[in-house]
């Protein structure tokens, strides 16, 4: 498998993908996802874990809203992992994510995930390279456990925006009243560490790739949501889900 190099991957939609056509297809896909998710829930034998990573302002919240709120809320849970609490820090780094993995029949969405603990922690010098590599091995073991022994299917998405696009979105948060609530004074400081973040993300992608990463061109919100919805539709369709018969 070739190594992922983010600078070699476009952040915009393919030129041959028409925006209006994709939007129409997206609406149809959401209807299909609603039915497929209901099948997954009814069958109750498999589960799906969606991992969403990306830089600040890459569209993680918008993607979650666009794709996953169209499904039955009984079968979908979203978990946002921010800075660890003191209680979480008193456990191993996987404690807070392992406790939220999906039971059979469910779709769980991780808005940020265990990958924060091998990217952000390195950007800020909280852990060293040796610790990071040990954590990567632990993440690989964790994902093997879920896929091989818990009938969990994992999709991992990195929302790939350009640094220019990120800065424009951060600036909009300071000017648009509807988005000011998202503003964080540290956002610009974090943005200045872009190159370090990209390097550590690439290392995470290339060391934790038994479950492959999807690098999603995300400068355009319509494409970001279309891409992820189609990937989820493809996965669920190929699980060959069936409604169970009446219980005897």
Quick structural overview:
48% of the residues lie in helices and 13% in strands. The protein has 248 residues and is α/β, with parallel strands linked by helices. The chain has one domain: P-loop containing nucleotide triphosphate hydrolases (Rossmann fold, 3-Layer(aba) Sandwich), CATH 3.40.50.
What is the topological layout?
Blueprint: H1 19-43, E1 47-54, H2 60-68, E2 76-80, H3 86-89, H4 95-98, E3 107-111, H5 116-123, H6 129-149, E4 152-160, H7 163-175, H8 187-191, H9 194-207, E5 213-217, H10 221-237
Parallel strand pairs: 1-3, 1-4, 2-3, 4-5
Helix pairs in contact: 1-10, 2-10, 5-6, 5-9
Description:
The protein has a 5-stranded parallel β-sheet, with helices on both faces. It is globular and about 60 Å long. It has 248 residues and is of the alpha/beta class. The chain has 10 helices and 5 strands. The chain has one domain: Rossmann fold (3-Layer(aba) Sandwich), CATH 3.40.50.300. α5 runs antiparallel to α6.
Count of structural domains: 1
Query: What is the count of DSSP helices, taking H or I runs of 4+ residues?
Result: 10
Q: List low-confidence stretches.
A: none
Total beta strands: 5
The top level CATH class name: Alpha Beta
Shape: globular
**Topology as H/E string?**
HEHEHHEHHEHHHEH
Instruction: State the major sheet.
Output: 5 strands, parallel
Helix content: 40-55%
Helix/strand-derived class? alpha/beta
| CATH superfamily grouping | P-loop containing nucleotide triphosphate hydrolases
Spatial strand order of the main sheet: 2-3-1-4-5
Q: Roughly how many Å is the radius of gyration?
A: 18 Å
How many angstroms separate the termini?
48 Å
Beta content: 5-15%
Q: Mean pLDDT score, rounded?
A: 96
CATH topology: Rossmann fold
CATH architecture level-2 label: 3-Layer(aba) Sandwich
